[in-house]
Structures are given as C-alpha cells and as structure tokens.
Amino acid sequence: MRTYEQVQSLRSFVSACRTDGHNIGFVPTMGALHEGHLSLIRRARSECDRVVVSIFVNPMQFGPDDDYSSYPRNLDQDGSLVSATGIDALFVPSVDEIYPAGADTSVEPPAIARRWEGEARPGHFRGVCTVCAKLFNIVQPDFAYFGRKDYQQLKVIQRMVAGLCIPVSVVQCPTVREYDGLALSSRNAYLNPEERLAAPVLHRALQAAHALWSDGEHDAEALNRAMRTKLAEAPSVKLEYSTVADAESLEPLTTIDPPAVCMIAARIGATRLIDNILLGNGAERSSTSSS
Ligand code: AMP
C-alpha cells in the first residue's frame, strides 16, 4: 500500500492502473476507522482490481455547532488497519489540497437531501456532495462503496451521481453493529459508559418497528409510535426525529408501501447518533451483527 497526499500523485497512480487495464474500487471515509469502514474496504477488495481508500475529515460538511475540531483523528492506527486489508492506495489529502484558495465551487444537493439530516444539519449535504464529487473526479473509480448506516447520504450520493452523469457505480453495504445492536460509528467514541449502555435503544426502537411491520401493520404512525415508546425507555436519549419513509424518495409515508425505511436521529448527551432499518426489498435482518 502506498500513501498519497497530493491530488497529482494519486492521479498518476490511478492512470497507471488504467493503463494496465485494472478497474478501481473506492471507499471514501473520514477516518477513525472501525469494522463498518473495514467491511466496505474488504468488499471493495474482493470485487475490484485496485482499491483506493481516502481519509479526509471534510470541513465543508460540518456546521458551526458540529464537532469538526473534535472529530476523532488517528491516522497512524488507521494506516495500520487499512494496510492489513491489502488495499493499493491510501489518499490522505490536506484541506488545502481539496479546497485550494479560490476553489469556491460547490455542488447543489438533490432535493432528497432537504428533509431529515438536511433539515437538522443545514449545509451538511452540500459539503458531502461537493467532497464526493471532487473525490470521484480525482480517483475516477468504477465502483464507490457506501454504508447503509448513513442511509440518506447513500441516497443523496446515488441521486447526485445520476444527476451529474458521474460514471461510477455506487455499491451499498450493510450496517455493521456491535453485539448489542449499536451501529458502529466513529462518534460512538464520544459516549461515556452510561451513554454507551443507553445507545442500543436506537436499534431496539427500529427493531420494534420492523417487528410490527412483519406482523402485518401497515400504518406508518403505528410504527412511529412503537419507535418513540421504545426510545422513551431510555430517558437520556433525546429524539430529534423518527420517520417511516419511502426507501427511494425518503418522503414520509402514511401507509407503508415497501420498500420503506425507518430512520431515527437522537442525541445522547452531547453525541448525535443516527440509525435506520429497511422494510421490504433488501430488508435487513433485525438481530444480526450486520444489518
Ligand atoms: P464516515 O467515515 O463516517 O464518513 O463513513 C465512511 C463510510 O463508512 C460511509 O459510507 C458510511 O456509511 C460507512 N459506515 C460508517 N459506519 C458504518 C457501519 N457501522 N456499517 C457500515 N458502513 C458504515
């Protein structure tokens, strides 16, 4: 594995891969790598000739009240973890490399970005779309791997790629969870022991909704109520939103017409967590370590 800090040197690597007839898989991350990231990287490794992983904490997707400065960074450990997966290139650009002076062009996110995370975090998806468009232009991958853990982000990227005619196939990967159902996230590191104990209630709430739907309930509000009732069992968990939405448009549903997705955003102390579960087509098993 070689590490690249400059756009130009990464481009040279990519063009040599192309000359040799290799296809390229790409996994964009913000580092503080965990098993969720590694599952994407391993999948890319198993499906592509050459694999590029990027680690870049993208300032543009953090709002003024977000955790940009405190976001966990551990490049040495991340380097060892990715190196063990057998990837070919690690791209770790500086902020100036991605946003050089005068580079003030940004990508208008698709309409699907407006609700949920888009509403809770103004500007977030503009930052996500802009950095992903830049990274796609730099790496020019055939396949880009994204986790369902960030379900709205995955859908936003799929729409952006289609809307801007970017020649990359977006591959969606299942959510990797802790033994107790908590979705792995770099932000879990912020949780104190009590908060960590409370955090799996998000997954339990999603499972409750999934179970209700499996039993034949089609009223979205009934699933919403089940999620809120479960979440209320952990008073330290403050719900921001819960919804049952169409899995493609992310518009809230009244009557469930699968595929649909249940999504939750909540705060535990100072930490904001999101999670989701699919209903129908491609639905996730609700009690495994990978859903
Ligand atoms: P991040 O470093 O948080 O920007 O995440 C980079 C990629 O890893 C995104 O596509 C995420 O959706 C994905 N990811 C994060 N957590 C998980 C998880 N627990 N399971 C699967 N993918 C994940």
Number of strands: 9
Give the strand order, joined by hyphens, for the main sheet: 1-4-3-2-5-6
Helix content: 25-40%
Beta-strand level of the residues, as a percent range? Answer: 15-25%
**How can the largest sheet be summarized?**
6 strands, parallel
Shape: globular
Distance between the termini: 30 Å
Mean pLDDT: 96
Secondary-structure content class? alpha/beta
The low-pLDDT segments are 283-289
* Continuous helix count: 10
Radius of gyration: 19 Å
Helix and strand sequence: EHEHEHEHHHEHEHHHEEE
**Bound molecule types:** adenosine monophosphate
Could you walk me through the main structural features you see in this protein, from its secondary elements to its overall organization?
The chain is of the alpha/beta class and about 290 residues long. It has helices spanning about 5-20, 35-45, 75-85, 95-100, 115-120, 125-140, 150-165, 195-200, 200-215, 220-230, and strands spanning about 1-5, 25-30, 50-55, 90, 145, 170-175, 235-245, 260-270, 270-280. Helix 7 links the parallel strand 5 and strand 6 (about 170-175). Helix 9 (about 200-215) runs antiparallel to helix 10. It starts with a strand and ends in a 12-residue tail after the last strand. The relative contact order is 0.13. The chain binds adenosine monophosphate. Adenosine monophosphate binds next to helix 2 and strand 5.
